[in-house]
Structures are given as C-alpha cells and as structure tokens.
C-alpha cells in the first residue's frame, strides 16, 4: 500500500459537509512549468533538505502546509504555502466551486534562499504600515521572514 500524502487543497461546504472543490495535481502542474524559468530558481518537486529533481514526488510532492483566506472588496483569495518546493500559491476562491489560480510566488534560490514556508499572515491595508495589503511568510528551514506587498489588479 502507498500513501502519497496531501498534494492539493480542498474546499468544503460547511452546511452540508460536501467537498465542492479539490485542486488535484494543479500545484505540481504549475510548478513543473515554472521550475527553472526566469524568476523561478528551483527544480521540480525538490525538497528543502535535498535539492533533487522530482525528489519529493513519492512523498507528498510540494507539500501544501498553510492556508490563509483574505477578502479584498468582493473577492476572496486563498494563500497556500508549499513547504517543500517553496513559495505560495494564490487562488481566487470567490466562487468556492470554481477557484481560479491567480499567481505563484517563490523566493527560493536553488538550494538556498527562503526554504520551508510555514506560517502565513495577511495584513489588510487598513492595518498595514504602508497603507497597502501585505503578506508575511515565515520560512522554517531558512529562518527567514519575507514580506510581500499585495498588488490587486481586479
């Protein structure tokens, strides 16, 4: 028997208990197309403790770790950290049964840089020191904290 671990995120209907969405292999599909392209210095399904192509595929893949939801006007976004390959996936989940991938951010630099994103928080513009919404990412392995300004384009 093989158990490959969590590789996706799901949205459940709180009233009925029914699952209305699961992202399936979307994280791996997205990271496989971006790995090694300009602006993305990582290899596909690597881990933070062993930098090897496809090294995490038998064991949880990118390993989604944390999630934060934040409303901006009429839109709701999910920010999902990927502990092993690194980075944060962002989805528009305004329509829970039909989320849309918005962007992926990964500040890893090969086997170094920001490694092991665990904790996420979003600071709304009204509480932000610069008056703009911010996302704060705490990285367990590298011991770094990264702050991103959220630029809304809708």
From TrEMBL:
Pfam families assigned: choice_anch_I (PF22494)
Give every Choice-of-anchor I domain span.
2-150
InterPro entries recorded for this chain? Answer: Choice_anch_I, Mesenchyme-surface_protein
Name of the protein in its database record:
Choice-of-anchor I domain-containing protein
């Amino acid at each position: 028997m093989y158990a490959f671990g969590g590789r996706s995120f799901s949205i459940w209907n709180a009233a009925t208990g029914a699952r209305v969405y699961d992202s399936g292999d979307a994280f791996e599909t997205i990271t496989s197309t971006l790995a090694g392209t300009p602006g993305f210095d990582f290899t596909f399904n690597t881990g933070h403790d062993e930098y090897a192509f496809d090294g995490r595929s038998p064991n949880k893949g990118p390993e989604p770790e944390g999630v934060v939801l934040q409303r901006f006007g009429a839109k709701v976004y999910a920010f999902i950290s990927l502990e092993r390959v690194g980075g944060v996936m962002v989805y528009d989940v305004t329509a829970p049964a039909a989320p849309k991938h918005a962007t992926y951010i990964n500040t890893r630099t090969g086997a170094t840089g920001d490694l092991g994103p665990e904790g996420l928080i979003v600071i709304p513009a009204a509480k932000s020191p610069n008056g703009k919404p911010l996302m704060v990412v705490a990285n367990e392995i590298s011991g770094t904290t990264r702050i991103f300004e959220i630029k809304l384009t809708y």
